[in-house]
């Protein structure tokens, strides 16, 4: 006898697909070009700052700040890796410059 009271279906069965309707505001749909990302973390959250750093000037502007729970940060990492792997399979390896440490002297100006 099986337990059919589980809303996710029989035990061991994959969960049913969920369809989510997303609303995308016009300003967000335009996107924001960023060429630098800074990541900070605490015990309870990750903070991702997406920055446009002006060429030839040590000045940048945070275009977006995203706060994530640790579980969601890890899910984002996995999904991003999957998409980068798919991209490289199709277009070839993405060359990277040497990874630089985070800027030592960053200052937030409101």
* Overall residue-averaged pLDDT value: 85
Task: For the record, give the distance between the C-alpha atoms at the N and C termini, rounded to a whole number.
Answer: 63 Å
Enter the CATH topology name of one domain: Transcriptional Co-activator pc4, Chain A
Which outline best applies?
extended
Strand order of the largest sheet: 1-2-3
Report on the architecture of this protein.
The chain is of the alpha+beta class and 110 residues long. The protein has a domain at 29-91: Transcriptional Co-activator pc4, Chain A, CATH 2.30.31. The chain has helices spanning 26-29, 70-91, and strands at residues 36-41, 46-53, 60-68. Strands 1-2-3 form a three-stranded antiparallel β-sheet. A hairpin with a 4-residue loop joins strand 1 and strand 2. The longest helix has 22 residues, at 70-91. The chain is extended. The termini are far apart.
């Amino acid at each position: 006898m099986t337990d059919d009271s589980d809303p996710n279906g029989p035990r061991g069965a994959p969960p049913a697909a969920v369809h989510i309707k997303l609303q995308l505001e016009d300003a967000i749909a335009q996107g924001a070009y960023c060429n630098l990302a800074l990541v900070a973390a605490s015990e309870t959250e990750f903070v991702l700052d997406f920055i446009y750093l002006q060429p030839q000037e040590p000045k940048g502007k945070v275009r977006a700040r995203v706060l994530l729970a640790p579980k969601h940060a890890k899910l984002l990492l996995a999904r991003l890796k999957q998409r980068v792997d798919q991209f490289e399979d199709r277009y070839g390896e993405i060359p990277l410059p040497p990874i630089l440490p985070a800027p030592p002297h960053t200052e937030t100006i409101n």
